[in-house]
Amino acid sequence: MPLYSMSPLLKAAEEHGAAVGAFSVSNLEMIRGVLRAAEETETPVILQIAEVRLPHAPLSLIGPVMLAAARQAKVPVAVHLDHGTTFQCIQQALDLGFTSVMFDGSALSMEENMLATRQVIELARPRGATVEAEIGVIGKTESGEDRTAVCASPEESLRFLKETQVDALAVAIGNAHGVYVGAPQLRFDILEAIRRESKAPLVLHGGTGISDEDFRRCVKNGIRKINIATATHIAAFEAAREARNYYDMSDRMEEAAYQVAKRHIGVFGTFAL
Ligand code: 13P
What we know:
Layout: H1 6-16, E1 20-24, H2 28-41, E2 45-50, H3 59-72, E3 77-84, H4 87-96, E4 100-103, H5 110-124, E5 130-135, H6 154-164, E6 168-171, H7 188-197, E7 202-204, H8 212-220, E8 223-228, H9 230-241, H10 246-268
Parallel strand pairs: 1-2, 1-8, 2-3, 3-4, 4-5, 5-6, 6-7, 7-8
The structure holds 1,3-dihydroxyacetonephosphate.
Residues 24, 50, 82-83, 142, 177-178, 205-208, 227-231 line the site of 1,3-dihydroxyacetonephosphate (13P).
């Protein structure tokens, strides 16, 4: 199957009232487990890796593996750089053939974030790649650093969408990366207010630990991409601890990633392109 950018996947998800699962992968086992779940559920999926994870799995090595596995899959797959913070890394992902990139400008002012997002769009669009941006501050970074969460304002989100024409926007609504301390209190009112004015695809980060009910409510209110990282990594690690030898460990890690992806795809909604 050819590689897909995110847009056709997000559009099909919109038509089916679903969201695409975006699973962060760190090794071959996770890549294979996630794709097995996608094939079995006959649902498109996004394979992604965040810039902060590259010291463990350099993009020049894991990128081609992600792309090759995606091309071999029997379902449409987009290959995405998650939380790109430097133009250098975003450029490298595009040069490798990633079909989608995220520019994380959450540390910048709104104006700087919009300016940099537009520059990333200029790099990505000529290659047919899609761009995701972020607005507001998601509590806890992808690498686990604590930071004060700042929810996105609906007015600023709508302005961001209009002025950048970005393909997907990650909105901070009280979500956080990693393991939640206490049940997350998501601000559905923000999603509802954006949705009333725009059908642009919204993205939910920090999927690990969010209840199925909240996932469904997010999907109902315009979330079209949901990121899952910690759940897969915890499950793979726990599975590896039980292993008798290396090959058994590899099988168990793949199975763990498969189970996590399959469960989440079931909640986010199965659909074909
Ligand atoms: P979790 O690690 O909480 O699942 O979040 C994943 C994510 O949002 C990656 O960008």
